[in-house]
Every structure is written in structure tokens, then in C-alpha cells.
Design goal:
Number of domains: 4
Radius of gyration: 32 Å
Helix content: 40-55%
Largest sheet: 6 strands, antiparallel
Structural class: alpha+beta
Shape: flat
Number of strands: 19
Strand content: 15-25%
């Protein structure tokens, strides 16, 4: 009840604040104090609602449906905290929480400028209000008897919760989603400024306010995307970091638009051009965040994406549609009303000299937007049809875009604002182009042989050396404005890592019999056995490391991939292990464990109940099964147990009763060898069973009779691990480049904040 009341207070206070700001701006009523008061009440109520949900999770209040659904007593504190946003309801609250915290900084930022405070805060508070509506419709404070009416008694308290999906039980779950949501929430700030600028027509001043926020949003959203890729690479075991999954793409698209907007915002600040472009891009970036939310949360991609949430219910579905359409409509009306004045200020944009830095920045933004358009087209396809776009579509379409993008990234630093002397410009290009050419020739001789990749490599190093030269010039001038150069260097390294790790990656499937080495990529791989380990987060699951010794040049290491049967997912879970070196990763992912094979499957014969059959000179009559030790239901997958077949054997005229045993260890059948009483050189094994049902009118036992002759013909197979082994060349360069690029974004915020302080002072 407390949580729901806090959400209702959030909704009511936010609408009062919106009305106050609207009357202040449009009717010129002086309601700023009351508007600020109710905005702060909105923030405080969200903070208290978040703290309350967290307290319910940490104190294991399983009478709440959300707490029961996603948490359990066995989870450690970091993962327990992460269940706050593991489901739809909690993630909406997390979004509202970050939007509220950002709002505190924003209101402090704009309160110094009367032209911006009311319109900016009116729009921004509307964002929080819509999130509050979603929390009313999809509340994390619903009790289990409210969630399951008629099925659960009122005031019932489960002893434990369902727990967190094992796929999410990882360190990255603690930091990746929050960073992503900070990016989503912060993109509402440029959106609010863009609409406010359409209201107040302060087309020149707004760029100083929006630049730090756009940088922060791009940096955090980009960091979240990169961490998601690293999580996928290190944990999921499929060997990649980006699958062009529709939900992955839905985060990438608004990031690309925000990065495009950054480039044109820089152009506006330097030349006062691109005002119309920047307002539209700032609006589109946030509308794409809402579209991303719709794709992820509506359940519309449930069959097309492994990341998609289940369908949330018709009320939330309609609310999400209204969320997007309302903001799109507000934006369209504002642009339409100001279209004439926007067109007038845009006339300056048409006078841009093509050989200028602002022109290249604008073209670069268009190139980035072209990539975004391709991705959004492929991502949206499942909405209109049941088919999905193949990964190759994205790779093939984006490669030429990336090549052109890198060319413009390389030349931008050597151009001046407004116009550039052609001869001086070309002279500046000689050094980075020559260095790139020499590097490319060397790589083409020793490694690269396809023309498209030779071209790609050249433009990568062209951009890389251009960035280094720019960085050197900045340091020589004793300036601290090196964020853009660092970001471009990171971008070049990022693409270099992509090419090396994807195009030149090698993979092989190894069948590793226990104790017998197998060679691949110059290494010896030896499976040395399984090692059980305790996982306090999942006490019901029996987990194993499958130790694989890796040797080369008298050096050795042990990789420990994991496989286990998950009681949560009721399926086999697999986690890879990775050995990272300066120039490559060895990526080892388990596929299957084959138990020791004690018999030739061709010797296996089924004997029906009360049927007698002669096998290798031994007459065997199957009497019945003894299932007294077998567990019932789902426990069979988690418990070691035995089942028995009662038979009678006749050999050399002597008949004896015999109980044959079939053990199940971790769900894997292991037949027990039993010597024939009449002749110990003959071995019997109970290998399987068929229970009487509609398909099998008679129960039957599968039995093997192994004589010295059959044993000599069949060589027993040891336990075998089937694993995928891959070499990922220079994938570390990819991660290094990505983090260098994001560092460049974050560092650039410092200068833009200083610029804003100068304007305010």
C-alpha cells in the first residue's frame, strides 16, 4: 500500500508541476515557486518509492508479486539489489528514479535562465509523469493475492521467491542495466530543451545548455551498450558480442542519432548553423528511446528477440503507444508552428562552404544517420511480418558506411571553420595518409588479402593517425580540448578490433576424450575431468567446471567452462571460459558431455515383460521393474538415483534370479556391470527402459549381454567433452577502442560545462 501511495503522489505532484510551469510560461502567471515545489515532491516520492521497493527486496517480502517473481533468499546482496530492475515494473521505476535524479541537476541548471526553466521543466516533468502512469498500470507493489486473484489466499507469505534467471546472475547485471537507463533518462534533457527552444525561439542560446547533456547521454548510453556486448561475449557462450538482435539494436539506434546530433551541435556552436537540424535530431533521439521501450516492453518482439520482455498486458501496451504518439504529436505541432522561423534560421545552413569543418561534421552526421536508418528498418521488420533480417544484412550494409565514416573522421581535424585553404588542407593529409598506407601495405603482405578489407584497414589507420596528430597538436598548444581526438582514435581501434576478431577468427569443434590431448591452432587441449562446485546463489543446481588443460611451448593453463542443468529454466546452461592475451583470446565454449560408453549400442536388445530372449547364449526373462528408489516429478533431474530390472537368467542349464541396476547421476544414465552368476566372464547391463503406454503396449527393459568375444570387438569409450574452441585475434583492441572512445565523450563534457558557466555568468 505504501509503495502504491508513493506512486500516486508522484503522478499527482508531477501533473501539478506541469500545470504550474505551463501557466507560468504561456499565461505569464508567476507560479515558479509552486512548480518547483511540486517537482521536488515528485522527485522525493520517486526516491522513497525506490527505497521502499529495495527494502522489500532486501528483507525478502515475498508477499509482493514482484519480489517473489525475481528474488530469492539464496541471492547475494549485489544480485539481490539487481532484482530491483530485473522485471518490467522495477525497470520502469529505475527509469523514473534516474529521471528524477537527473531532474535535480537540470532544474538547478535552468533556474538561472528564466527563458528556459518553465518550458524545459514542463516537458521534462511530463516525461516523469508518463513513467508514473506506467507504474500505476504495472506496479511493483502488487501483492501475490492481487496478482493471482482466487489462486492465492490473502496475506499468504511464500517461504522463498522464484529467484533470478541464471543468465542474469552475473556481475554485469549489477552495472549494465543501470548505466543503460541513465543514458535513456538523460536523453530526455536534450528533447526537453529542443521543444523549449521551439517555444521560446532561443535558437542561439540553447546549444550551450544542451551540449553537456547530449555528451553525457551519448557517453552513458554508449558505455551501457559496450558493457552489454562484453557481457554477451564473456558469459553467453555463443562466441560473439553483437548479434544484431532487435532489442540490442533498439538501444543502438538512439545512440547513433545522439552521436550524429553531437557533431552538428559542435557545428552550430562554432558557426551558428544547423539550428533546425539540431532541434529535430534532439527530438528524434528521445522519440527513438520511446520506440526502443515499446519494442522491448510491449512483447511485440517476443518471438524475434531473446532480450524481449513478455507481453505486459493491454493497458500497458496502450500506454506505451500513447507515450510515443503523445510526444511525437507534441513535437510535430511545435515544429509545424515554428516552421517558418526555423526555415529562416536554416538559411544560414545553406551557405556552408563544402571545404569546411562544419560541412564535414554535417556530412558525418548524415552518414551516422544512414547507418541508423538501415538498422531501424531491419529492427522493425518483425513488427510487420514474422520474418527477421539476417545478420549478414546489417554487416554488408554497414561496412561501406563505416569506411566512408572513417574517411570523414580522418579529414575533419585538418579543416578550418567556414572555409579552408585547399593546398594547406591537402598538405596536412600527407603524413597520416602516408603512415596509413605503409601500415596497410605491411598488413596486406602478411595478413590481409581481400580488397575490401585492405581499403577498410587503410581508412582505419588514416583515422587513427589523424587522431594522434590532432592529439599531439592539442598537447603542444597546451590545451585540454582533446576529447574529440581521443574519441576518434578509439573509434579507429574499435573498427580494427571488429575486423581482426570477426574476419580472421578461427573456430573448431573438438571431441576431447578424457586424458587424451587434441591439437588445434598450435595448442594441445586435454580434458581432465569435471569438478563440482557450490553456487550459493543456486543451491538446487549441481554445477561443474569441466577442466581443460591447454599447453603450448612448455607453458600450460587450465580453462574451466561450466555446464549444468538449471532448475529455474529446466534446461542445460553453458558458460564459456576465455584466456586473454595481448594479441588474441582463446575462447572455449562447452557443447556437450558424453558419458563413458560401456557397451556397443548394437548389442542392446529390448525384452518385453514376461518375455524370454536368448542373447549370446544366455536366456534372459524380464520380470518387472523396481522403481522404489526413483524420485518423482522434476526432482529426477536434480537427484542421483537408481532403477532396477528384475530378471532370471539361464545358462548351461542353470537358472538364477538377478537384479540389474541402472544408475542416474546428474540425469545421465550409467549402467552397472553385473557378472553372470553361472559364468563371471559374461557381463550383463541394464541400459534403458520403455514403460507401458499407448505407444508401448508392453513394458520392456533394454539389456546388453557382453561376452569376452563381444568385449574384444568393442573398445570402451571414456567420458568425452565436446567443445568449441575459437581464436579471436586482437579482440582486446576492440574493447580498448570502445572504452577509449567513451572516455573521449566523458572528457569532452568538462569543456562544455565550462562554456555553459561562461554563458550563465
Amino acid at each position: 500500500m505504501i509503495g502504491k501511495i508513493l506512486v500516486y503522489i508522484t503522478l499527482a505532484a508531477s501533473f501539478i508541476s506541469i500545470i504550474g510551469y505551463a501557466l507560468t510560461y504561456f499565461r505569464k502567471n508567476n507560479l515558479l515557486k509552486i512548480s518547483r515545489l511540486f517537482f521536488h515532491i515528485t522527485v522525493i516520492s520517486v526516491l522513497f518509492a525506490s527505497a521502499y521497493l529495495l527494502s522489500l527486496i532486501l528483507s525478502h517480502q515475498f508477499q509482493y508479486s514482484y519480489v517473489w517473481e525475481y528474488s530469492s533468499r539464496s541471492l547475494g546482496t549485489p544480485l539481490l539489489i539487481s532484482t530491483f530492475y530485473a522485471g518490467q515494473e522495477g525497470s520502469f521505476l529505475l527509469w523514473a528514479l534516474f529521471a528524477s535524479i537527473i531532474g535535480i541537476f537540470l532544474i538547478n541548471n535552468v533556474s538561472k535562465n528564466s527563458d528556459f526553466e518553465a518550458p524545459v521543466m514542463m516537458i521534462y516533468t511530463l516525461v516523469i509523469a508518463f513513467l508514473a502512469v506506467l507504474l500505476v498500470l504495472k506496479s511493483p507493489f502488487t501483492t501475490i493475492w492481487e496478482a493471482f486473484p482466487g489462486q492465492v489466499k490473502e496475506n499468504y507469505m511464500p517461504e522463498d521467491g522464484r529467484g533470478l534467471n541464471p543468465i542474469l546472475q552475473n556481475f554485469w547485471m549489477v552495472i549494465h542495466p543501470p548505466i543503460l537507463f541513465i543514458g535513456f533518462a538523460s536523453l530526455a534533457v536534450p528533447f526537453s530543451f529542443a521543444l523549449a527552444t521551439l517555444f521560446n525561439k532561443k535558437y542561439r542560446e540553447w546549444v550551450y545548455y544542451v551540449m553537456p547533456w547530449m555528451l553525457f547521454a551519448s557517453a552513458t548510453l554508449g558505455l551501457g551498450i559496450i558493457l552489454g556486448g562484453y557481457w554477451s561475449y564473456g558469459v553467453l557462450g555463443w562466441g560473439g558480442y553483437w548479434a544484431w538482435d532487435p532489442v540490442e539494436n533498439s538501444s543502438l539506434i538512439p545512440w547513433l542519432v545522439s552521436v550524429a546530433a553531437l557533431h552538428t551541435l559542435i557545428g552550430q556552436k562554432a558557426t551558428e548553423g544547423y539550428k533546425k537540424t539540431n532541434i529535430i535530431l534532439s527530438i528524434i533521439a528521445y522519440l527513438l528511446v520511446l520506440y526502443s521501450t515499446f519494442l522491448t516492453r510491449s512483447g511485440i518482439l517476443q518471438d524475434a528477440s531473446v532480450h524481449s520482455f513478455v507481453k505486459p498486458g493491454m493497458e500497458v501496451y496502450i500506454a506505451l503507444v500513447l507515450f510515443i504518439s503523445s510526444f511525437a504529436l507534441i513535437s510535430a505541432i511545435a515544429i509545424a508552428v515554428r516552421f517558418k522561423s526555423l526555415s529562416e534560421v536554416a538559411k544560414k545552413d545553406a551557405k556552408v562552404n563544402i571545404l569546411s569543418r562544419e560541412a564535414v561534421l554535417y556530412i558525418g552526421a548524415l552518414i551516422i544517420l544512414a547507418s541508423g536508418a538501415i538498422i531501424i528498418a531491419g529492427t522493425s521488420l518483425p513488427i510487420f511480418s514474422k520474418s527477421t533480417v539476417d545478420i549478414s544484412f546489417y554487416n554488408q550494409m554497414n561496412m561501406p558506411i563505416a569506411i566512408v565514416m572513417l574517411v570523414f573522421a580522418a579529414i575533419a581535424f585538418f579543416l578550418d571553420w567556414r572555409s579552408t585553404d585547399t593546398k594547406k588542407f591537402l598538405n596536412k593529409l600527407i603524413t597520416p595518409a602516408a603512415l596509413a598506407l605503409v601500415t596497410t601495405i605491411i598488413l596486406a603482405i602478411f595478413a590481409i588479402n581481400e580488397l575490401v578489407y585492405i581499403i577498410f584497414t587503410f581508412v582505419i589507420f588514416f583515422a587513427f593517425f589523424s587522431g594522434l596528430i590532432k592529439l599531439g597538436n592539442v598537447f603542444k598548444a597546451k590545451k585540454l580540448t582533446f576529447g574529440a581526438a581521443v574519441a576518434h582514435i578509439g573509434l579507429a581501434l574499435f573498427f580494427l578490433g571488429i575486423i581482426a576478431s570477426s574476419k580472421y577468427s578461427e573456430e573448431v569443434k573438438l571431441s576431447l576424450e578424457m586424458g587424451k590431448p587434441a591439437e588445434a591452432f598450435g595448442y594441445l587441449f586435454t580434458y581432465t575431468g569435471a569438478e563440482p562446485f557450490d553456487d550459493p546463489q543456486n543451491p538446487n543446481d549441481e554445477k561443474y567446471y569441466f577442466n581443460i588443460l591447454v599447453e603450448k611451448d612448455n607453458k600450460e593453463m587450465v580453462l574451466k567452462p561450466v555446464m549444468y542443468f538449471s532448475s529455474f529454466n529446466e534446461g542445460l546452461m553453458k558458460n564459456p571460459d576465455i584466456a586473454s592475451f595481448v594479441t588474441k583470446d582463446i575462447y572455449l565454449s562447452p557443447i556437450e558431455l558424453i558419458a563413458p560408453q560401456k557397451f556397443n549400442p548394437k548389442d542392446e536388445q529390448a525384452i518385453g515383460q514376461n518375455e524370454e530372449k536368448e542373447i549370446n547364449g544366455v536366456k534372459i526373462k524380464f520380470i518387472d521393474f523396481d522403481l522404489s528408489q526413483a524420485p518423482m516429478g522434476n526432482q529426477a533431474e536434480m537427484t542421483d538415483y537408481s532403477i532396477f530390472a528384475n530378471v532370471s537368467t539361464t545358462y548351461n542349464g542353470k537358472t538364477n534370479p538377478l537384479k540389474l541396476e541402472l544408475k542416474y547421476v546428474g540425469g545421465v544414465p550409467e549402467p552397472v556391470e553385473i557378472n553372470l552368476p553361472q559364468d563371471e566372464k559374461i557381463t550383463l547391463m541394464f541400459t534403458g527402459m520403455n514403460v507401458k503406454n499407448e505407444q508401448n503396449p508392453v513394458s520392456s527393459a533394454k539389456i546388453v549381454v557382453a561376452t569376452e568375444e563381444t568385449k574384444s570387438k568393442f573398445k570402451k569409450q571414456e567420458e568425452m567433452m565436446i567443445a568449441s574452441v575459437a581464436i579471436k585475434p586482437f579482440i582486446g583492441v576492440l574493447w580498448l577502442g570502445a572504452f577509449i572512445m567513451i572516455f573521449g565523450f566523458f572528457y569532452s563534457i568538462i569543456k562544455r560545462v565550462r562554456d555553459l558557466k561562461k554563458v550563465n555568468n
